[in-house]
Amino acid sequence: MSLAAVAEGLGSNIITYWDEGKKEVKKILVLPGDYELTCVLKLGVPGMEVTPPKRRPEFNWLHKNKF
Fold it and tell me: Which of helix, strand or coil describes residue 28?
């Protein structure tokens, strides 16, 4: 879903909640008691122009028998 959102020009972010935050989110989303909240996928329109990160030339990360 995240890749599809980016392809449509949307921004996305996967977040997790723990302990009290998880309980609050379950209450806000009105999840039934037997459902377990794993993560939340946020989708939205980016607030500014987003440029993809610059990529390294292919295989410049590869070091064979040396640093």
Answer: helix
- φ, ψ at 6 (rounded to 5°): -65, -40
pLDDT along the chain (67 residues), means of 10: 88 90 90 90 82 66 61
| pTM confidence score | 0.54
Q: Quickly list H helices, the chain.
A: 2-7, 19-29
Buried b (16+ CB within 10 A) or exposed e, 31-54: eeeeeeeeeeeeeeeeeeeeeeee
pLDDT for res 66: 60
Token digits of residue 2: 């995240």
